[in-house]
C-alpha cells in the first residue's frame, strides 16, 4: 500500500529558469543511475526476501520508497528549471520569443545548442521531465539488477548508490544556483546514507563471501595471474595475506603462459596459498546450501503462506 504525501521530502527550490541544467538533471530522473532505477531495483529485489528475510524486506522497501521521493524532488526541480517554457509553447496564436526562435533552421539549431537538449525534450514534454536520460534515451527495465540472492543484490545496491552519488557530485559542477545545489547536496548525501545501510545489512549475513552458495576451487581462489608485460605493480590485491586470515596468502604467478604449459591449461595447478582442500569445499557447499534453503523453506512452510504478516491469512 502506498500513500502519497504532497509535501516533498526536501523543499526543492530554484533561483530561476535554466533549461540547460534541466536537461542534464534528466540523468537522475530517467537515466541508468537515476532515482527511478534505484526505486525499481530495490522494489523488485524486495519480493524474493519478503518471507525468508523480513527485516531486509523492510529495509529494501523503505529505501525504494525514499527513492520514489527523490524522483519527485528531481522531477519538481526539472519542472521549476523549465518555468515559462510550457506557457510559451501553449501560446500558439501569439508567437512568443521562443516561437520566433523556432522559425528558421539555424535558429532552431541555436536554441537546441543553447538548451543542450534533444529536440523532443521541448517539443514532446512541453516543459516537464521526461522518463529519459539527458540524451533522450528512454528509461529501461534493463537498468534494474535483481539476482534473487541477497548478498549479490546488496552488493549491486552499494555500487548503484556509489554511482548515483558521483553523478550528483558531477552535476553540482554545472550549476551556480545555490538553491539547486542545496537540493542536489541533500540527494547526494542520502546516497551516502543508503550506501552505509546496505553495507551494514550485508554484514549481518554471515558468511557472505563469496556471493551465493558455492565456494571457489581452491586451486584458483588465491592465484593472481600477471597478465601484462612490463613493470608489475604489487599490493594487498596480489601479495601477502590479502583479505584472508593467518596462514593464507596470494600466489603471484609471474608467467601465466609458462604456468598454463606446465599445468596442462591450469587443470593440474596445485593448491597454493590456502589449506582448504577440495573435500572441505564440497562440505562447505553442502552446509551452506542446506542453511540457505532451510531459511527459505522454514519461512514459507505454513500452508496458507500469507504475504501480509499483519493481515488475515
TrEMBL record:
Residues 282-313 are annotated as: Disordered. Mn(2+) binds at residues 35, 67, 70, 161, 194. The keyword Transport does not apply. The keyword Metal-binding applies. Residues 282-293, 300-313 have a biased composition (Polar residues). InterPro entries: Ferritin-like, Ferritin-like_SF, Mn_catalase, Mn_catalase_dom. Binds 2 manganese ions per subunit. One of its GO terms (molecular function) is metal ion binding. Its cofactor is Mn(2+); Ca(2+). Belongs to the manganese catalase family. This is Manganese catalase.
Amino acid at each position: 500500500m502506498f500513500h502519497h504525501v504532497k509535501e516533498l521530502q526536501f523543499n526543492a527550490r530554484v533561483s530561476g529558469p535554466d533549461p540547460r541544467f534541466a536537461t542534464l538533471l534528466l540523468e537522475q530522473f530517467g537515466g541508468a543511475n537515476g532515482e527511478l532505477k534505484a526505486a525499481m531495483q530495490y522494489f523488485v529485489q524486495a519480493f524474493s526476501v519478503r518471507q525468508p528475510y523480513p527485516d531486509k524486506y523492510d529495509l529494501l522497501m523503505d529505501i525504494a520508497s525514499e527513492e520514489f521521493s527523490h524522483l519527485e524532488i528531481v522531477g519538481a526541480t526539472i519542472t521549476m528549471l523549465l518555468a515559462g517554457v510550457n506557457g510559451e509553447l501553449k501560446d500558439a496564436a501569439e508567437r512568443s520569443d521562443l516561437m520566433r526562435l523556432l522559425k528558421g533552421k539555424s535558429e532552431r539549431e541555436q536554441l537546441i545548442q543553447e538548451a543542450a537538449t534533444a529536440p523532443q525534450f521541448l517539443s514532446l514534454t512541453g516543459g516537464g521531465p521526461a522518463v529519459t536520460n539527458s540524451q533522450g534515451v528512454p528509461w529501461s527495465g534493463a537498468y534494474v539488477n535483481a539476482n534473487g540472492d541477497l548478498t549479490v543484490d546488496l552488493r549491486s545496491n552499494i555500487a548503484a548508490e556509489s554511482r548515483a552519488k558521483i553523478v550528483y557530485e558531477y552535476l553540482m559542477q554545472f550549476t551556480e544556483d545555490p538553491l539547486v545545489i542545496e537540493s542536489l547536496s541533500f540527494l547526494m548525501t542520502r546516497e551516502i546514507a543508503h550506501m552505509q545501510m546496505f553495507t551494514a545489512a550485508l554484514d549481518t549475513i554471515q558468511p557472505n563471501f563469496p556471493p551465493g552458495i558455492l565456494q571457489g576451487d581452491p586451486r584458483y581462489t588465491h592465484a593472481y595471474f600477471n597478465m601484462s608485460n612490463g613493470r608489475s605493480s604489487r599490493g594487498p590485491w596480489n601479495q601477502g595475506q590479502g583479505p584472508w586470515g593467518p596462514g593464507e596468502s596470494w600466489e603471484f604467478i609471474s608467467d601465466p603462459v609458462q604456468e598454463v604449459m606446465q599445468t596442462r591449461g591450469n587443470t593440474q595447478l596445485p593448491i597454493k596459498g590456502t589449506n582448504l582442500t577440495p573435500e572441505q569445499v564440497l562440505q562447505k557447499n553442502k552446509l551452506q546450501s542446506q542453511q540457505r534453503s532451510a531459511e527459505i523453506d522454514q519461512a514459507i512452510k505454513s500452508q496458507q503462506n500469507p504475504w501480509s504478516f499483519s493481515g488475515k491469512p
